[in-house]
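Attaching the record inline, Q. Sequence:
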Amino acid sequence: MELPFAEAYKIKMVEPIRRSTRREREEWLKAAHYNMFQLEAGQVFIDLLTDSGTGAMSHRQWAAMMTGDESYAGARSYFELRETVQAITGFEYFIPTHQGRAAENVLFSALIRAGDVIPGNSHFDTTKGHIEARNAVALDCTYFYD
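Structure, as predicted:
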């Protein structure tokens, strides 16, 4: 007998969340003028809007967080990150950022100029915002066929 596929890891942390009623969800959506960004995190049971908070961390990631050097300047963690980035990419310089969208903003400020056309397959909302804030065009190249 062949067993069904199972993920090759154990979940290290769970966080209980409250399941709302349909009536509550309808009220919250109406109060938010149907703008998902106006909802509070506690009002969301399954987050299909963002890619945040969708995975657990490994035991090694948790251990690194607990043993990391959080000094403001000269932190051991920074030098370890720098050495790892240089070993992988060969780049001498890098800018650590706290989130992908922040990194995207830094990158776009260096690469995108007014009038540029940036094609994409359905740009994420903040990606589109970062492009358009630089007076460039976020061109959606998604096609639908009948």
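The mean pLDDT is 86. The CA atoms of residues 69 and 77 lie 5 Å apart.

More tomorrow.
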